[in-house]
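Handout, section B. The chain below has 81 residues.
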Amino acid sequence: MEQQGKDVSVLAHIQRLVAEEHRLFEQGELAPDKSKRLADVQVELDQCWDLLRQRRAFARNRRRSVQAHVRPPEVVEKYIG
């Protein structure tokens, strides 16, 4: 049950980031600071999705999800798919 609570927290954070991403996209052409924020949001989204996938994989394999951790942008940004 504790794991589900952590996943819900990550999912809620993802929802907030997606909402912010959509608001930024709706603005059209962005000023440099907003453009940077959009890029930062997209990286953070990738990190959150990666963390959620790690936790679920550990849970499926009956391993402690404590081992799941936020990986650096250099790692998650190289994923294909």
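Note. The chain has a mean pLDDT of 88. Compare this with the example in section A.
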